[in-house]
Amino acid sequence: MLALLTAFVVACLLFLSKPCARDMRLCLASLCQQLALSLLGFLAGLRLIGGVAAASAASETMPLMPSFKRKRAVATVENVEAAGGGGGEPSVLDLPELAIDCILERLPPAELRNMAAVCRSMRERCRGDHLWERHMSEKWGRVLGHAARDEWRAHLASASESGGAGSATGGGGKRRRWLAALSCVCPVVSWMRPKADGAKSSGPVLDDSIMSWYLSMESGKFWFPAQVYNREHGHVGFMMSCYDAELSYDFHTDTFRARYPPHGRRTVVLEDGVQWDRVRAPPVDTLAHDLHASDCLHELRPGDHIEIQWRRNKEFPYGWWYGVVGHLESCDGNEHFCRCHLSDTVLLEFNQYTPGSRWRQALVNRKDHREEGNEGDGFYGGIRKLRSKDDISKWRQLWPTDILE
């Protein structure tokens, strides 16, 4: 301690006698730190000696009463035995296994999560996938597809890697040493616990359980891939279309926040307040910039409902646009004499546009269909036939009130 004080005084004199070079500043800072730690250790030793002395004096003047403590312990044991023998209050864990499972299956997600915090046994029971599969399907099933499941697995892997890297680093060690030294002198400092490296302040613990996935969806911290009808609040340029986006749930408003990928010169577009009825799980696994392989061209007939990929130019992602198969000009529309399904050309109609509009009709080749179009009218991609009445009904619900130009 004395040597450190002497070194500190010499360093101060050198500091005052000549210009402060960088090495001298580092040396002085190191000496100050060592001096402060030594001083704290010295004070802590004095506090410890004083505490021991006070405890010794107290034991001499007021001896402990072991007989009283033994009697109290015996009385406590007797009370416990009496309570056990008299049949104390029943516990849920006393019920049969089947009864507990039946109770847990009828709990909503919020109550099931609360039950998981009761004790270790209930935590293991309440985290079972068989309890959360139904809740996951009922709330999120219509907006989650295979791509969302793959994204969740990637999210888990990324969280695991970042957590491992954070625990391997040594950041925060100096701060913990300072707090440990100060806590010896001032006990209040012991309440200041430094956060673990890489730790987050809140949020559910991530694991591969369905409960963890459900809670991550509910909290809005997990962005999942889906598709949005009439993007950007029903902008006229996207009416009767469905585009890929990343979505995050907002439990305050029971809506979604959509994040559309950048295209062309546009940056990432954000849209808040997306209602549930405008979100769907991707019906196919085709990515937004990939051409969908059409497998229904040979069976298309007039009156069939379809979705077709379309994009403004080569830099844009595809969106799915609703249309119907129409009759060729050579056909009078009589279903008894119609031969449109035998032609190599398929006429697609987009009746949301006014007659005469360049967006009203499009021709595609049935046998050798590829991406067709130009920079002026856009490019048409793959086609999928709508076979579900619910899909067709959904597009009809989104039909615009006014005919588009």
UniProtKB/TrEMBL annotation:
Q: Where is the signal peptide?
A: 1-22
Q: Which UniProt keywords apply?
A: Signal
**What InterPro entries does its record include?**
F-box-like_dom_sf, F-box_dom
Q: Which domain of life is it from?
A: Eukaryota
Q: Name one Pfam family in it.
A: F-box
Instruction: Give start and end of each F-box domain.
Output: 89-135
Looking up PROSITE patterns in the UniProt record yields:
FBOX
Gene3D superfamilies in UniProt: 1.20.1280.50
Q: What is this protein called?
A: F-box domain-containing protein
Q: What is the lineage of its organism?
A: Eukaryota, Viridiplantae, Streptophyta, Embryophyta, Tracheophyta
